UniProtKB/TrEMBL annotation:
Gene: pcdh11
Protein name per the record: Cadherin domain-containing protein
One example of a Gene Ontology biological process annotation: anatomical structure morphogenesis
Composition bias, Polar residues: 847-861
Signal peptide bounds: 1-23
Disordered: region residues: 845-875
GO molecular function annotations of the record: calcium ion binding
Membrane topology: Single-pass type I membrane protein
PANTHER family in the record: CADHERIN-87A, PROTOCADHERIN-11 X-LINKED-RELATED
Keyword Lipid metabolism: no
Record lineage: Eukaryota, Metazoa, Chordata, Craniata, Vertebrata
GO cellular component terms, A-Z: plasma membrane
Gene3D superfamilies associated with the record: Cadherins (2.60.40.60)
Keywords: Calcium, Cell adhesion, Cell membrane, Glycoprotein, Membrane, Repeat, Signal, Transmembrane, Transmembrane helix
Length: 1036
């Protein structure tokens, strides 16, 4: 080998090594149908691009995809990091590789340029598109008809038209089965050498057309995806008469070549088949199977009689290089024969090469602007030439048509880099129009050309000019020191030394920023913190190297981008809220305030509740906490949980705060009496008990807390003389006065307990029975008194009309003696008058007997004792008086008008006539007075009572009598002229009962005489069937 040959070999070897260094290939695998922003790989890491620290870069490392014009990118490459992600454009393997016949692998290719020129590399990336199961297998028809002769032998097989699935591999067709099958048929699957699966129907029992001529089944096809996809079709088998032999192809597989420019009706091939039958059973009919694609059916036709296949439409090898035809030969029987014809479309040089120019240097109005001092091998564009033809017809060479300082350097197959091959001189040539020619190797040659326009920038006596008056930059905070921000460049129309530009920062530049004097690379030497300083503005000066330097400046606006380096911050590490226990469902408990020093999405904080068992909800944005439950302080007085704050950064930051919700008590529980346990119980108070002694006690509890559970006791009825008193706090009932004879008997105290709750107090009422006597000698009598007590309205005292048996008997004896004495005296007196006086005087005496006046009833049992000492007078007579009761008609139409007469006996006692002092007696009594007929007596022959209704007062809220157990329930009764309780006089009662007594009201009965002697009195009347108080007006 001579020296020239060795030199040539070395040059070729060196060129190959250099090309390997800066031309690389990288393969990735990605599944189809991936969503946007799915990470595929990292070019910088995968290519092991380690920057040499000794090489000064003119610009930061950049990865720039080189796309074809009009291409829809399926992936994107991050310019700074080299990370590869999917885009919003859908990757569809079936669409991307639809024209590849029998190809299992589908690829998508792009080229990426690694810049700047100091470390330039061109990387070809091939993405292997993995198939996913996104298509279900489908039959060509929803109904498949097969005809089988009735004398078919058992285990005979008949092909069933296959289904089609555009997916490949395991996602393609894997299984066929019969659904709703019959015992006469089975199904088997045959796999072809190409991997296709063909279903075959197997005859499992003898067929008899006369017995059953049609079988209907369902066939199911299923792929192997996860989850599998499937479809079904109706399989209808018709049993036909006997046709013993089916056609047999001479060649079951035929492969032919047809040029793609073959005219229509060109013969492709002719199939031959024979049939051993005779007559009509030997007549063969050729047809295409429905398993071939619709595109193939459009391009070819077959003669049904001769089996000749011809071209039906023009062929195009570049669209479909191979066609697969499945031909059926049928003699009218049920089982046609099958043959496969592979048609290879051969190439002819019918396609002109195409040139695709992808610019590495950005274009300005369709022209590459290149400085005259651009270094050698400056990469300008990636030229890709393609030819759809095959073999020599598709082999393309590429070159420039004349001598220019640029060259095309091959990198990959049919790809070239356009780069500078010689120094550029603005003064020599200002612009270049480079004609790139691509020519194939066909016969004859076909070629095409493309133009690349390059303008040379001169360096001359002009001030440096920045391409834009203001540079806007952004950088993430927490950057590494010495991070390069941007390469600031200015242009100068001069040449030579006068065009050399140096850069420096203006006097307003803040500390920590630097700029490279030659390259204009702006860098920052310290970490930036957006929370401290978000925006910077300063000037950069560009100065040329002329003898009289000229300069210009540009304003740099730098925005520090936020990084999620701050966790959400709660205003308090722990929150305590106080809510009333009657807070409604979804009412507002409180507000959690959280801030984040970051900005944008990094400052968008979302709140959520942890370990609260769904008892509370929180507005993720506003922080308002609301209950998902109703509170009951008596069940649970506080709730504690954690609130989580998460920002919306790519790497979310999290903070936690403790929340305690204290349930404040609400006065929602009434006091409940514990002692006495029953309204029927009683305590014995001996008459020898000294005043101030505790005779019994009451005790109540309240489930509330605080002031809502503070209780106070009071006696609201049953102690008219103040004989008993109760301690407001302890509930001890003490004797206040010395017991006298009039105090003997059963006393009923109405005890009220109320809490001190706000805003409204709640209370309960209980009955305390005290039996004042030395001993309990007659238990039956006490039980009777208790029964009467329970029937007596609360607004009346138990002892108003009753006295103990001992006192009652004593008074009756005294009255009887006095009455007898007065009767004897009266008889003697009347007899003397009759005998001694004349008739006129007798008349006067008779007239005086009819005169009389009203007297008042005995107020207390003690008054009875006083009357014994007075001189007794015999009664003069008994008169029957009539009381007229009237009720005015109320506005409510539901109330009936009461208008009737009540007859009441009145006993006149001479001893009381003229003794009643009307001036000291109230003219109006409480509506709870006893029976008026027993308390008001008059000597007037015809007194009149006018009874009118009184407007009831609404009962106060929460004032009820405690409901004790059934056997201890306090029951109120009423007599014929009173109600259980009066709503106008007793504010502590909310229930009423109907009176048992009543009177008839046939109409208004007028008395014989109406005399108004005294001011009107008022009482209470309860009519039959009514449940309301009536105010009684008594005109005397």
């Amino acid at each position: 080998m001579d020296l020239a040959s060795e030199t040539l070999v070395l040059v070729i070897l060196f060129t190959s090594l250099a090309m390997v260094c800066w031309a690389q290939e990288k393969d990735y695998t990605v599944k189809e149908e991936q969503p946007e922003n799915v990470r595929i790989g990292n070019l910088r890491k995968d290519l092991d691009l380690a920057l040499d620290p000794d090489i000064r870069l003119s610009a930061p490392l950049q990865f720039k995809p080189v796309y074809k014009t009009g291409d829809v990118p399926l992936v994107r490459v991050e310019a700074n990091t080299g990370e590869i992600f999917t885009t919003a454009n859908r990757i569809d393997r079936e669409k991307l590789c639809s024209g590849v016949f029998g190809e299992r692998n589908c690829y998508y290719e792009i080229e990426v340029a690694v810049l700047p020129d100091e470390i330039f590399r061109l990387v070809k990336i091939r993405f292997l598109i993995e198939d996913v199961n996104d298509n279900a297998p489908l039959f060509q028809s929803t109904v498949i008809n097969i005809s089988i002769p009735e004398n078919t032998a058992i285990n005979s097989r008949y092909p069933v038209p296959s289904a089609f699935d555009p997916d490949v591999g395991i996602n393609g067709i894997q299984h066929y089965e019969l659904v709703k099958s019959v015992s006469e048929f089975g199904l088997d699957i045959i796999e072809t050498p190409e991997g296709d699966k063909w279903p075959q129907l197997i005859v499992q029992q003898s067929l008899d057309r006369e017995t059953k001529d049609t079988f209907v089944m369902k066939i199911k096809v299923e792929d192997g995806g996860t989850p599998p996809k499937s479809s079904t079709a109706i399989l209808q088998v018709t049993v036909s008469d006997v046709n013993d032999n089916r056609p047999i192809f001479k060649d079951s597989e035929v492969e032919v070549n047809v040029p793609e420019n073959a005219p229509m009706s060109t013969s492709v091939t002719q199939l031959h088949a024979t049939d051993a039958d005779l007559g009509s059973n030997a007549q063969i009919h050729f047809s295409f199977s429905n398993q071939i694609s619709p595109s193939t059916k459009r391009h070819f036709a077959i003669d049904s009689s001769t089996g000749l296949i011809t071209v039906k439409q023009p062929l195009d090898r570049e669209v479909t290089p191979v066609h697969k035809l499945i031909v059926l030969a049928s003699d009218g029987g049920t089982t046609p024969s099958r043959a496969t014809v592979i048609v290879n479309v051969t190439d002819i040089n019918d396609n002109v090469p195409s040139i695709d120019t992808r610019y590495i240097i950005n274009l300005v109005n369709g022209t590459v602007l290149l400085s005259e001092n651009a270094p050698l091998n400056t990469k300008i564009a990636l030229i890709t030439v393609t030819d759809k033809d095959a073999d020599l017809n598709g082999k393309v060479t590429c070159y420039t048509d004349h001598d220019v300082p640029f060259s095309l350097k091959p990198v990959f197959n049919n790809q070239f880099l356009l780069e500078t091959a010689a120094p550029l001189d603005y003064e020599t040539t200002r612009e270049y129009a480079i004609r790139i020619v691509a020519s194939d190797s066909g016969n004859p040659h076909l070629n095409t050309s493309a133009m690349v326009l390059i303008k040379i920038k001169d360096e001359n006596d002009n001030s440096p000019i920045f391409s834009q008056p203001e540079i806007q930059l952004s950088i993430p905070e927490n950057n590494d020191p010495a991070t390069q921000l941007i390469k600031i460049s200015a242009t100068d129309a001069d040449s030579g030394q006068n065009a050399e530009i140096t850069y420096c920062l203006g006097p307003d530049a803040p500390d920590g920023f630097n700029i490279d004097r030659r390259t204009g690379i702006l860098s920052v030497s310290r970490r930036l913190d957006r929370e401290k300083h978000e925006k910077y503005m300063f000037t950069v000066i560009a100065k040329d190297n002329g003898s009289t330097p000229l300069q210009s400046n540009v304003t740099v606006r730098l925005i520090v981008q936020d990084m999620n380096d701050n966790s959400p911050s709660f205003t308090h590490p722990e929150y305590n809220f106080y809510v009333p226990e009657n807070l409604p469902l979804y009412g507002t408990v409180g507000l959690i305030t959280v801030t984040d020093a970051d900005a944008g999405e990094n400052a968008v904080v979302s709140l959520s509740i942890l370990n609260a068992k769904d008892n509370f909800i929180i507005d993720s944005k506003s922080g308002v906490i609301k209950p998902n439950i109703t509170f009951d302080r008596e069940q649970q007085s506080s709730y504690t949980f954690m609130v989580k704050a998460v920002d919306a950064g790519q790497k979310p930051a999290t903070s936690y705060a403790k929340v305690t919700i204290n349930v404040v008590d609400v006065n929602d529980n009434r006091p409940v009496f514990v002692i006495p346990a029953s309204n029927y119980s009683y305590d014995l108070v001996q008459s020898s008990t000294s005043p101030g002694s505790v005779v019994t006690r009451v005790f109540a509890i309240d489930n509330d807390t605080g002031m809502n559970a503070e209780l106070q006791y009071s006696i609201i009825g049953g102690s008219p003389r103040g004989l008993f008193a109760i301690d407001r706090t302890s509930g001890n009932i003490t004797l206040q006065e010395k017991i006298v004879a009039a105090d003997l008997g059963l006393h009923r105290l109405v005890v009220k307990v109320r809490d001190l709750g706000q805003p409204e107090s709640l209370h309960a009422v209980a009955l305390v029975h005290l039996f004042v006597n030395d001993t309990v000698s007659n238990a039956t009598y006490i039980q009777e008194q208790l029964r009467k007590s329970m029937e007596t309205p609360l607004d009346r005292n138990v002892g108003d009309s009753d006295i103990i048996p001992q006192a009652n008997g004593y008074i009756i004896v005294v009255i009887a003696i006095i009455a007898g004495t007065m009767t004897v005296i009266l008889v003697i007196f009347v007899t003397a008058l009759v005998r001694c006086r004349q008739t006129p005087r007798h008349k006067v005496v008779q007239k005086s007997k009819q005169s009389g006046e009203w007297v008042s009833p005995n107020q207390e049992n003690r008054q009875i004792k006083k009357k014994k000492k007075k001189k007794k007078r015999s009664p003069k007579s008994l008169l029957l008086n009539f009381v007229t009761i009237e009720e005015s008609k109320p506005d409510d139409l539901a109330h009936e008008h009461i208008n009737g007469t009540l007859d009441l006996p009145v006993e006149l006692e001479e001893q009381t006539m003229g003794k009643y002092n009307w001036a000291t007696t109230p003219t109006t009594f409480k509506p709870d007075s006893p029976d008026l007929a027993k308390h008001y007596k008059s000597a007037s022959p015809q007194p009149t009572f006018q009874i009118k209704p009184e407007t009831p007062v609404a009962p106060k809220k929460h004032h009820v009598i405690q409901e004790l157990p059934l056997d201890n329930t306090f029951v109120v009764g009423c007599d014929s002229l009173s109600k259980c309780s009066s709503s106008s006089s007793d504010p502590y009662s909310v229930s009423e009962c109907s009176c048992q007594g009543g009177f008839k009201t046939p109409g208004q009965i007028h008395t014989r005489q109406e005399t108004a002697l005294k001011p009107p009195l008022y009482g209470t009347l309860c009519g039959p069937g009514t449940a309301r108080s009536q105010r009684i007006k008594i005109n005397l």
